[in-house]
Amino acid sequence: MPTREEVMEVLKKVKDPELGRSLVDLGMIRDVKIDGDKVKVTVALTIAGCPMKGRIAGDVKKAVSEIPGVKEVEVELTTMTPEEREKIFGKKKVPEKKALKDIRHIIAVASGKGGVGKTTVAVNLAVALAKRGYKVGILDADIYGPNVPLLMGLEGERPFTRDNLLVPPERWGIKVMSFGFLAPEGQPIIWRGPLVHRALSELAESVDWGVLDFLVIDLPPGTGDAPLTVAQVFPLRGVVIVTTPQKVAISDVVRSINMFNELGTRIFGIVENMAYLKTIGPDGKEHIIPVFGEGGGEKLARDLRVPFLGKVPLDPNLSKSGELGKPAALDPESELGKVFGEIAEKIATKALEFEKMGSCGLKKA
Ligand SMILES: Nc1ncnc2c1ncn2[C@@H]1O[C@H](COP(=O)(O)OP(=O)(O)OP(=O)(O)O)[C@@H](O)[C@H]1O
Predict the structure, then answer these.
(1) From ligand 1's centre to the CA of 215, what distance in Å?
(2) Taking the CB of residue 22, how many other CB atoms lie within 10 A of it?
(3) Which pLDDT score, from 0 to 100, does residue 295 have?
(4) How far is the CA of 116 from the centre of ligand 1 (A)?
(5) Which of 84, 87, 115, 204 sits a CA distance of 20 to 30 A from 176?
(6) Alpha carbons 273 and 271: distance in angstroms, whole number
(7) Is 115 annotated as a binding residue?
(8) Using CA atoms, how far apart are residues 120 and 113, in angstroms rounded to an integer?
(9) Taking CB atoms and a 6 Å cutoff, what residues make up the pocket around ligand 1?
């Protein structure tokens, strides 16, 4: 009859395909039951609906079946609680930075892949928060495509230096800092890995933000060096994930959530951008067209057990307002203003909840 020790020993060699670490080290083996030659292993996935769950179950089954004396293996899948995830992933503390000490909530806006409208959402979220009376700053950490200055109407601006700190230009009542301000005009900066880390770490120390309720950080897309560094050097209250409704975006979002889980960063939830298009049909009535499919973001949030923060329509006014440097959320009574207002309110409420819980790496207020 196989023993629990033997089972755990073989499971030590089974790795989470995305995190690259042993299921045992990750605390994913919730239970092992042995009944004669039958073994039942309960695996707690880091997030529900993990697209790797079939592979993980298959790898566990294969590894345990190879133990001499085992005839039958059953794998039951369950999901970790947020507390369990924090125990494993939330060990890393972000060192405190003087330049950030008067900022109450630092919120990152991330996306699994490029071009889903992350910057558009980040800018309009910052504006919607400012419209609600909060003191807001926005940091464009998208080193590869810093578009925040354009969207905020600050192209060509430069920060000035006071007491060795960069003073961010202001527009629409929001303090703005961007790698775009620091790059030579018209020239792309080519960043290599270690430089990315150094540049972002220096930026975290060298901006005079003053007192802010919210600092919104527009992250570079994906799960590469740059978003990882931001989550390591800024004491984030949490992260907002932007996606589009297409199925193809799902695995990118899961990868992104896994990365933030591993870093101990809380997830505010998912914003679905380009969720629908409103048109007036020949009948004179309003029609809602789900251009990229329907309910993808909501289902994804449900499957991954993270909050769904709202849908942003595909609206030419949103891209036009971006090009003009006048974010759509500046008019809180407009349709887009209301959409971003509701999302901002949900995030502000959650930020207070997270603050009470004592966010990873942050001192309690
Ligand atoms: N809901 C929307 N309706 C219409 N146009 C949109 C919408 N969201 C974004 N866009 C447009 O799509 C383009 C890409 O948007 P944006 O730059 O915000 O994406 P991103 O995810 O930040 O991209 P990157 O990965 O390059 O940083 C822009 O031209 C923007 O104006």
Answers:
(1) 20
(2) 15
(3) 75
(4) 6
(5) 115
(6) 6
(7) yes
(8) 14
(9) 111, 114-120, 142, 145, 147, 221, 273-274, 312, 314-315, 318-319, 322
Is the separation of the CB atoms in 28 and 80 below 8 Å? yes
How far is it, in rounded angstroms, from Cα 351 to Cα 362?
12
- Reduced 3-state DSSP string for 30-99: EEEEEECCEEEEEEEECCCCCCCHHHHHHHHHHHHHCCCCCCEEEEEEEECCHHHHHHHHCCCCCCCCHH
pLDDT tens string 333-350: 999 999 999 999 999 999
| Backbone region of residue 164 per phi and psi (left: phi > 0; alpha: psi in -120 to 50; beta: other values) | left
Q: Which of these ranges, 28-42, 127-141, 223-237, has the smallest mean pLDDT?
A: 223-237
Ligand-binding annotation for 112, yes or no, is yes
- The predicted-structure confidence for 163-201, as pLDDT tens digits, reads as follows 888 999 999 999 999 988 877 666 666 666 667 778 888
The token pair at 242 is 């932007």
Do residues 325 and 106 touch, judged by C-beta distance below 8 A? Answer: no
What's the pTM value of the predicted model, to 2 decimals? Answer: 0.79
